[in-house]
Amino acid sequence: MQRKKPNENKYKDQPVWRGTARLLRLFFKKPRIVSLSGDIPDKAIYVANHAAMFGPLMYNLYLPAAVSQWGAYPMLGGWKQRYRYLKDVYFIQKRHKSKFAATVLAFLEAGFAPMFYKGLKVLPSYNDRRFIITMRKSFKTLDEGRGLIIFPEKSEEGYLETLTGFYGGFVVLAKYYRKLRGEDVPIYPIYYHPKYKKIVIGFPVYYGDCEAQGMDRNRIAEELCDRVNELFEQHIKE
Question: Which of 89, 10, 3 lies closest to 43, judged by CA?
Fold first, then answer.
């Protein structure tokens, strides 16, 4: 993939975030972007590593596609809900911060998080019966021709370089979008590494092909997790 200027058209309905994104690029420099399959479409499902706070932001700023993202639903709630999630889950459980540091950071970030989540076009990701809300919003996003970045990694023990597994919510989305819309949306694996300043985009996988091979949801999720890890091992780490 050729190095191009960030695609400002993806912010055409976000004039305020367009200016914010330009400012953020002064502090978060563009990583090297390598796409193994050439140009990528807007309308696709992208499964990616989270890379702590960096992944969601860097994909939004520099991925050459117009995308929304799935994000933890508490971060789209009120201040208290955001604060508790940031302190107890994000900073203590996943980032392994001390209780004091987590309290201070969560207090600060809970205030300006809504602006960033709106700019990143975050959709609430539920893991209970409210998952139907996630599906409806995701369908609408894909119908509009935008893509979806999903962070399905099992990060209960933290954000690791080598991912330990994927949850299968993105597989359910691909399955039912194909069933109800008649379109097999490509699923692209992506890996970003802040130390090496590099984003690698792998070859797409299609739900229909996986189903034809007899793969169930868990097996497809495992396959995509392996592909994301391969991007790190073969195209970043080496």
Answer: 10
User: What's the rounded Cα separation, in Å, for the pair 163 and 229?
Assistant: 6
Tokens of 212: 């034809």
Whole-number Å distance between alpha carbons of 46 and 156: 21
pTM: 0.91
SS (H, E, C) 114-146: HHHHHHCCEEEECCCCCHHHHHHHHHHHHHCCC
123 φ, ψ to 5°? Answer: -100, 140
CB 236 within 8 A of CB 223: no
Q: How far apart are CA 20 and CA 163, in angstroms?
A: 31
pLDDT tens for each residue of 24-48: 999 999 999 999 999 999 999 999 9
